[in-house]
Amino acid sequence: MSRTLITGGTIVTAADTYAADVLIDGEKIAQIGTGLQAGGAKKIDASGKLVIPGGIDVHTHMELPFGGTFASDDFETGTRAAAFGGTTTIVDFAVQAMGGTLAAARDEWMRKADGKAVVDYGLHMIVRDVSDKILREMDTLVREGVSSFKLFMAYPGVFMVDDGAIFKALVRTGENGGLICMHAENGGVIDVLVKKALAEKKTAPKWHALTRPPEAEGEATGRAFRLAEMAGGVPLYIVHLSAAQALEQVRLFRDRGLPAYAETCPQYLFLSYDNYEEPGFAGAKYVMSPPLREKWHQEELWKGLQRNDLQVVSTDHCPFCMKEGFQGQPKQKELGRGDFSKIPNGAPGVETRMALMFDGGVVAGRITASRWIELCSTTPAKIMGMFPRKGTIAVGSDADIVIWDPKATQTLSAKTHHMRVDYNPYEGRKVKGKAVTVLSRGEVIVEKDRFVGKKGRGKFIKRGSPILQT
Ligand code: URP
Ligand code: ZN
Ligand code: ZN
Q1: Exposed (0-12), middle (13-18) or buried (19+): which is 435, by Cβ within 10 Å?
Q2: pLDDT tens, 420-429?
Q3: Where would you tag: which of 190, 343, 357, 426 has the fewest CB atoms within 10 A of its CB?
Q4: Which residues contact 403 (CB under 8 A, 6 or more apart)?
Q5: pLDDT tens, position by position, 380-411
Q6: What is the DSSP secondary-structure string of 114-162?
Q7: Which residue's C-alpha comes closest to atom 7 of ligand 1?
Q8: Which pLDDT score is estimated for 136?
Q9: How wide is the angle at C-alpha 28 spanned by C-alphas 22 and 34, nearest 5°?
């Protein structure tokens, strides 16, 4: 068993910031203390650096099929990019085929990840039809470590399920210990607005945002929480929350003492509707759902993060290339030139989350370093049933550790990023803070800007029920 001693750094957890050494034995953290000695151990000098639990991104879409194409990162390229950015665990969404079983979808995603992932991964399940058979299968999946299920209130005819189906699934997770993750946008209203815009020849990318108003997100979020309340006050987690109107609903239900949770993503904190007004077809880079909002929503979301009405920052990493043929990718965003409704929805971000949140959050004085870790690692691990194996620096936890240089600066760019996509939504943005050494289960996988791990070393993480004290 190899041993590694990290010396001289400042440990940051969700609870504390303190100077101490960390001894790793094999895959686990063995000891934390000052002046640790370990003869024969590999040494990592972390002087002047932060020693943090690896980032946990609980919302990614590697190779997601969407609108006739697939998200351009696979489990190899996407998890390698995650590692470069200081993220050591992802939870990706497997998609139930129409009429297919959940087990088949889980197995398909395991095949996608197996032999490729370089960091550990869990799976959620996107459920598209909620029959009695599928409800029974949900119980099995929870027991087998796929303990969360995404439902859509948008994309009629593709992913959307009705209120009755949502209610049944909520009741079931209340019984089996799983968690419903909700894409909350009113798909019926959006569909009408999209058809109207297209009939009026409004085809540019910005119309994606203009046909998905924030009120459609607010309405669906409130309805989802009401359904969870009627289902017996079961926990509900809203994914990729973008709008103040939706946040207001989360706050309302939390204030009523209900187990209401939500994540937001860096794109909603750092980008805005203005990006859709970039010239030509450039707005397609930001076509995602929910869309980017007017700038004023950003400050509301920051308040939500500060007051714990938002508990998690994930990425919704779902990249599609702008240029046809980039690294062998066929037409992707280009599919929607001349019809915004055909632009594949999603944008890259798995690599840039930790740095954006450190720079725009901690360095900017909006959140503390501990809150940064809580939002990007500890609470995701808790809500998604991986804590304390993941999400903290503690004796017995997996040695998923990032040595973070708080003084280093980096310029985010498609020229230097590792995600398999030909643009970076934050192109040219200078940020302070960088992952300099990344360990996953005790093994150094990123060092001096080089990937030194092995393809396929990432393991499937069986997740449990959510820990919901937050
Ligand atoms: O636009 C997005 N968010 N694409 C990925 C699918 C989803 O709804 O999360
Ligand atoms: Zn979604
Ligand atoms: Zn998503």
Answers
A1: buried
A2: 999 999 999 9
A3: 426
A4: 6, 9, 44, 46, 49, 50, 51, 435, 436, 437, 438
A5: 999 999 999 999 999 999 999 999 999 999 99
A6: TTT-SSEEEEEEE-----HHHHHHHHHHHHTT--EEEEESSSTTTTB--
A7: 289
A8: 98
A9: 15
Which tokens sit at 182? 């909700």
Q: Which residues contact 44 (CB under 8 A, 6 or more apart)?
A: 4, 5, 6, 7, 403, 437, 444
Report how far apart, in Å, the C-alpha atoms of 25 and of each of 187, 234, 396 are. Answer: 50, 40, 10
Q: Is 124 in the pocket of ligand 1 (CB under 6 A)?
A: no
Q: Residues for the chain: how many in total?
A: 470
From the CB of 345, is ligand 1 less than 6 Å away? Answer: yes
CA-CA distance, 412 to 389, in Å (whole number)? 31
What is the structure's pLDDT at 470? 64
Determine the average pLDDT of the residues in 96-105: 97
**Per-residue pLDDT at 1 exceeds 90:** no
The response to whether residue 289 sits with its C-beta less than 6 Å from ligand 1 reads yes
pLDDT tens string 227-247: 999 999 999 999 999 999 999
